[in-house]
Design brief:
7-stranded mixed β-sheet; 3 domains; Quinone Oxidoreductase, Chain A, domain 1; binds NADP nicotinamide-adenine-dinucleotide phosphate; 12 helices; 6-stranded parallel β-sheet
């Protein structure tokens, strides 16, 4: 028999309640009262239950840096202020897990500060100091509040996303995200698994589609070389191109050969023990090269591209130039560097040389979520750290030999 529910405020507060709603048996002794929380008694036929409605949290744990430097600059605040929505298209997200990317490690040292701070000012996200700064670009979490122009999400939705560089980051228990930076998370993944993908997925998407000028359905007769097939970008890119029907050639070091084969690469070249160029000569001409490693050895593979096809590199000096030479001089120097790369591409067989970079892209994440839920892309997780262990995660990523992704569990 269903019991009639009578809700009546009793203004008690019990210190042992932790969740937003918790039910107490009649016999439960409630200690109160600080006057901060309202407590409701709900009377049923055979028992009294007490349902407490907690005020929204105002404080959170967040990792901050107060100046640029090494890992010693990372400071955990237990009483950080939860960010507030200031734009009608933004959402407040309670982060369940976030990943650590090489960009976080280099931003900790000041990488990109000139360009990122300029963008922060242009976009009206603060013109003063960027400190205290929270690093971290991607997350999986739960929507807690929405701005009044947000139409696609509501509180309680499970979402994933990757945030623009000028926003405060995700190495905290809450963040503000724009509606266009997120999508619903794949329902088949846990938050830990989901958090491993958004930044590498949107960067790879930008490299292949936006800057690589490919279309999602145009890979079926294409052969793509991916340098660094064992890292965060590599393990995602191999699976994405296979999901789109392409043929994948990937380089990696010896211990990662089995992993890279397992995620679907058709040809795996162990760059430590094999002659990469002679293996590529045997495999045949390439339609695209994705290079998240950078360097002369990688650029030497350009000559295996078909004429007028793209060499897309994720490693280029735009941000460091702005840091070193100032904004305007840095932009001018970057234009010269890009021209140098383009000329090099032309001289190595009329190939097109392009820089690619992360662009927030909720629509791409939505499409990736479909591929994940259909089993075509699986997260590859190297190690999971607790929130309090974040500096250890940075140390690991700094070594640049990831086997998939490093993830932070915000709830642990
Ligand atoms: N432009 C952008 O917006 C953007 C965005 C994301 C990433 N990136 C760039 O992409 C890089 C990789 O990101 P990630 O997340 O994949 O990092 P990661 O998880 O640390 O992976 C780095 C990978 O590079 C491989 N590697 C290193 N030297 C290599 C070589 N000579 N040949 C082949 N593979 C080599 C490593 O494999 P082994 O251990 O087998 O050597 C490792 O798997 C970042 O460092 C960053 O420079 C740029």
């Amino acid at each position: 028999m269903k019991a009639a529910m009578i809700r009546q405020p009793c203004f008690r507060s019990c210190v042992h309640l932790r969740n937003a709603l918790e039910v107490h048996e009649k016999s439960t002794a409630c200690t109160f009262q600080k006057g901060r929380q309202k407590c409701y008694s709900t009377q049923t036929e055979n028992k009294i239950t007490t349902v407490e409605k907690k005020k929204p949290k105002r404080r959170m744990k967040a990792w901050y840096i107060y100046q640029y430097g090494g890992n010693e600059e990372l400071t955990l605040s237990e009483e950080a202020k939860i960010p507030e929505i200031t734009s009608p298209k933004d959402l407040l997200i309670e982060i369940q897990a976030a990943s650590v990317n090489p960009i976080d490690v280099v931003m900790r040292g000041g990488y990109g500060r000139n360009l990122i701070n300029k963008m922060r000012t242009w976009l009206g996200r603060g013109s003063g100091s960027e400190f205290p700064l929270t690093l971290g670009r991607d997350f999986s979490g739960i929507v807690r509040q929405t701005g009044h122009l947000v139409t696609r999400y509501k509180p309680g939705d499970e979402v994933w996303g990757a945030l623009a560089g000028q926003r405060q980051g995700t190495h905290a228990q809450f963040c503000i995200a724009g509606e266009n930076e997120i999508s619903k998370k794949p329902s088949s993944l846990s938050h830990i698994e989901a958090a491993s993908l958004p930044y590498v997925a949107t960067t790879t998407w930008a490299a292949l589609i936006t800057m690589g000028h490919m279309r999602e359905n145009s890979f079926h007769d294409k052969r793509v070389l991916i340098h660094g097939g064992s890292g965060g970008i590599g393990t995602f890119a191999v699976q994405l191109i296979k999901a789109w029907g392409g043929e994948v050639v990937a380089t990696c070091s010896t211990d990662a050969v089995a992993l890279v084969k397992h995620i679907g690469a058709d040809h795996v070249i162990d760059y430590r023990t094999e002659d990469v160029l002679s293996r590529l000569g045997d495999i045949g001409k390439l339609d695209l090269i994705l290079d998240p490693v950078g360097g002369e050895a990688q650029e030497a593979t350009m000559k295996f591209l078909r004429p007028y096809h793209n060499y897309v590199t994720l490693v280029f000096p735009l941000l460091p130039n702005a840091d070193k030479h100032g904004f305007l001089a840095g932009m001018a120097k970057s234009a010269v560097d890009l021209n140098f790369g383009i000329t090099k591409g032309i001289s190595k067989g009329l190939t097109s040389y392009r820089w690619a970079f992360f662009i927030p892209n909720g629509e791409a994440l939505k499409k990736v979520a479909v591929l994940v839920d259909s089993g075509k892309i699986q997260p590859v997780i190297d190690k999971v750290f607790k929130l309090d262990e974040l500096p250890l995660a940075y140390e690991k990523v700094e070594q640049k030999h990831g086997r998939g992704k490093t993830v932070i569990d915000m709830r642990a």
